[in-house]
# Entry
Amino acid sequence: MYIPMNIPEGNSILIMMSHDESTFNLNDGCHQAWQSSEQTFLQPKLKERGIMISNVLYLYGRVTVPEQTTHEQIILARLDPIHREATEYFEYGKNNEGYWSGEHLVNHITKVVILIFQLSYCPESVQGLFLFENAAGHCCYANDALHPINVSMRPGGKQYLLCAGWYQINGVKQIQEMIFPHNYEKFPNLSQGLKSVVEEGKLWHPHLRLDCMSCYCQQSKQILIQRKSVIDGLYCQKEPNYCSMKKQCGECLLLCKHSKDKISTGCCALKIISKQPDFHEQKVQLQEEVEQLCYLVLFLLEFHCELNWIEYYCGWSKKYARENCGYSIEALCDILPIALDSVMPQLIGKYYYKTQRILQAYCDGIVYGSKDFKKV
# Structure
C-alpha cells in the first residue's frame, strides 16, 4: 500500500482492518442436492474435528509481515518467524486445545496482529482501525470491569473484585470504591457487594431484589414488562391480577410486592446499577485493551455480517478447502494455508467495494433480498 510522504503534522492515514473467525471441518467435502437456481444450499453444521481460524484483512489483502523484514526484526518484535501471517489456527475440542474464547481473541489481536501492523507501518503517520462483528465472544468484559453480572448482592464471598467507579454529587465526580480497604474488620480486601454500592449512591429502597428477570406465569411477565416501561418512561397503567399457572406462581407474590415500591429509579438492583454512568460507560475487554495501544475499534451492527468483506473471503477459502477436502485432520492442516492464499488481493478489494455498495443501498432504503438489492 502506498503511503504519501508529505502528511501534514498532527494528521495520520487511517488503515482499516477487518476481523473474522471461521471454522473448517475435516469431513466438510462437496455434497450434492436438488434445489432451485435462485436458492443456495445450506451446509449442515458438522460435529467432527476441525480447525478454527482467527484472521484479519486489510482492504487489499491479508495482514502479513513485510517481505523486507529480517529474521532478527521479527524475533525482536516478539513474533514467530515461521508464521508471517496474522492468522491464528486453533484446533478446537475438549480433547484438543479447548474452545475459543474472548481472551484468545484479545491475545491474538494485541500480541500478534498489532505487532505485525507496527512492523508494516510507521505509527507516527498511520492509525489502525479494527472492525469486529457484534458477536457474543467479542463482547466479553474483564473480571474487574464495572459490569452488574460480576458482583453479588452481599459483600465478601467468592465474587470478582471490581475496579473503582464514580458518581456525581452536585456536578462533582466522586470516586466510589468497590472493594473494602485492607484494614476493614469484617471483609478486608473483598467486594462491597451490590447493595452497599447502590446504598452509597442513594438509590436503595426496601424490598429491592437482585434481579427480577426470572418470572414464569403470565402475570409475572406483564409486571416485568411494566417495570421495563417505567425505565423507558412509558408507564402502563394496566396491572394483571391473576396467576395463569395452575399452581400459584412463586414469583407472583414477590413481583407484586416489589411493584408497590418506588420503582422510578429501576425495577431491580441490577437494572439500577447498569443505568449508572460509570457502569453504563464500561467498555468490553477487547475494546479496552486495543484502545490502550492507541488503536481504534468499531463493531458492526448485529446480524449484518454482509457488511464485512472478510466474510466473502472466508467463503471463498471454505469453497477451496471443500473442493480439496482430504477427510483427515492432517490433510486439513495442509490445505488451510493454501486455501487462505487462494484468494487474490484484487478479489479482496472487490469484496470491500461490494460491502460499500450494500451499505449505500441500506442508506437509500433498499430492503435486503429485494430485486433492487440483488442488483447491488
The first strand starts at residue 13 and ends at 25. The two ends are 27 Å apart (CA to CA). The chain has two domains: 13-27+46-140+284-375, 142-228+266-279.
